[in-house]
Amino acid sequence: MDIKLIKAPSPATLDIIQNRSKLKFDKSPGAMGLVQGKMIEMTVACDIAYKTSGVEVSDVRGSCPQNMVMLAIVGDMEEVKVALRNIEEKSKEKDIW
Amino acid sequence: MDIKLIKAPSPATLDIIQNRSKLKFDKSPGAMGLVQGKMIEMTVACDIAYKTSGVEVSDVRGSCPQNMVMLAIVGDMEEVKVALRNIEEKSKEKDIW
Amino acid sequence: MDIKLIKAPSPATLDIIQNRSKLKFDKSPGAMGLVQGKMIEMTVACDIAYKTSGVEVSDVRGSCPQNMVMLAIVGDMEEVKVALRNIEEKSKEKDIW
Amino acid sequence: MDIKLIKAPSPATLDIIQNRSKLKFDKSPGAMGLVQGKMIEMTVACDIAYKTSGVEVSDVRGSCPQNMVMLAIVGDMEEVKVALRNIEEKSKEKDIW
Amino acid sequence: MDIKLIKAPSPATLDIIQNRSKLKFDKSPGAMGLVQGKMIEMTVACDIAYKTSGVEVSDVRGSCPQNMVMLAIVGDMEEVKVALRNIEEKSKEKDIW
Amino acid sequence: MDIKLIKAPSPATLDIIQNRSKLKFDKSPGAMGLVQGKMIEMTVACDIAYKTSGVEVSDVRGSCPQNMVMLAIVGDMEEVKVALRNIEEKSKEKDIW
């Protein structure tokens, strides 16, 4: 799973995300976190991001939402960092059932 | 085959699943199990899940249901855990013919 | 090439197959054999299954029939077993030309 | 590149090919050769088959003609065998330019 | 991640890019930089290119924007070179969160 | 990157190319060069072919122009050979920026 942090994303970057997700940017967010991996990993990462900070989370897809799917997490710099940190840590925990 | 368990899935997570499956969530389920693998593995896993607990099972797909297909299993925490446990165990059994 | 045998397939399993093939199940078949591999392998497997038993054979596909394509073989338990056995054995034979 | 030979292909096999190619079978051909590989390999194989025997050649595709594409070669048993043999031999020759 | 530089791109090359992106070329640009890699890498590369020079940046896609997606960066030779240099260097920096 | 040369391409081969590109063949060309590789490699190869000979160049695609994309280069035998030679040599040169 790849995780990236973009500080003050440019209009061209917001454009790529806006065209492939339900996110709409009236003003540029402070930061954008990106997560790319298997569908199952990104679904879990989405859940972690949503629960640990006030950031907005959306899946990024094309017309065929296959292997270019990403997760985009936008918000203030600190909030996005906390979300990425949580994803990185909690994704490694082994589920028990 | 990857198996994941999400406890008390968040609205963003339910959204991802709802948009790609026949599942509709009037209220958030207690737990969601996810299974990702080859089509043949997921079909077998679906059969196992359906037969061993009262959980609801659905395939998760996009417009092109190729390599992002998952199996989602929702229900109470204990029911989902039993289903995941059964999938893990019975998938390893060698078929005899 | 992966081969799996499902005994008394559940409604959820029949649903997955019915939605992606020309098979229609008025009543649940005794068994379902699944074969997943390269297109060329599955075409050969289809031919073997059709010729060695009275089972019904169909390709399973999505809207984009690419890498999630499977072969489904339905019938009585013993017939399906014979078909799977034949696929396994005859697929290994080297063609001579 | 995978090459397979099907003797007296069954109706179910002809069905798979007919639904994904321009081939129409009024009566079952004596044999069917299948070639699966990279697009560039199959295009060259198509050219070889067409030039060395009177067999009929067609590409096999789905709605998205990506990685399940095959080449189908139909005709009498001996003709198909010659075509497959030529593909196997001439494909290994190094082009010089 | 692959990076390429095309000096004075030909009409056929501009055609390939024009048909798969929002770029429109009234006159041929001095140079075209191309970046191909994972979706997450290209999104970050897009952001870097946009911020470090006056070049025009666009994602390149087909009807299914999956694994043939590229990033095209057009402008004067020196501007495009600076953009590619920045992408190469900054992509290696480890994000901290 | 794979490169192939077809001498005096047959009608079946021209058909495969014609159905997936903008090339139209009123008469059979003397030779056809094929190039298959990553999108970024083929775009560069297209540029090289266009600039070093009078051959006609086109991208070959299906409805989803993903991993079956090729580049077709048609013309007289010697012209096509020069184009393929140039692609092979110039593709290896390291860009400097």
UniProtKB/TrEMBL annotation, chains A, B, C, D, E, F:
SUPFAM superfamilies linked to this entry: CcmK-like (SSF143414)
Domain Bacterial microcompartment: 30-96
Location in or out of the cell: Bacterial microcompartment
Organism phylogeny: Bacteria, Bacillati, Bacillota, Tissierellia, Tissierellales
Protein name in UniProt: BMC domain-containing protein
Domain of life: Bacteria
InterPro entries: BMC_dom, CcmK-like_sf
A GO CC term assigned to this protein in UniProt: bacterial microcompartment
